[in-house]
Amino acid sequence: MWIIARSLACLLLVATVGCASWLMKGEPPEVLVTNVTPLEGTALEQRLQVDLRIRNPNDFDLFVTGIDFTLNLNGKRLARGLGNTTITVPRLSDAVVSVQTSTSTFDVVRQLLSFSQAQDLSYNIMGLLHLKDGRLPFDSSGTLLEKSQLSGAPLP
Fold first, then answer.
1. CATH number, position 106
2. Three-state SS for 95?
3. What is the pTM of this model?
4. Which residues pair with 63 in a beta bridge?
5. Side-chain-side CA neighbours of residue 108 (13 Å)
6. Is the pLDDT score of 145 beyond 50?
7. How many domains does the chain have?
């Protein structure tokens, strides 16, 4: 009798774990930088508004309750952002959220000093989307400006 009870308990555990992993399946969202706007600043700190497009490639809505990210520009950290805006990203769709961030004036100066018109202006953004029932990591990269745009030459 105890063998049957133990077998049923194991079967129930396997079924529960299987269902939980089925619910967690899906592709990670893609988070893209659409705009960076300078706000007020001081001698030691600069405030930026970063507009992010969150793309949901899944067949279910994402109920985002917050975001935590680090934005790197040409491989160097530019800003860290935290936002608690609640937004629903519909299935197979996208939504834009704006987050105010702060960065050190020294980080901005370092970015400007390392900037060259001979290179693309690329970014990497990584972090976590805080969801109603968990957290979902993301890591996306892109190009804000290509070197041909920076030098004023027309694009091919």
1. 2.60.40.1820
2. strand
3. 0.72
4. 88
5. 15
6. yes
7. 1
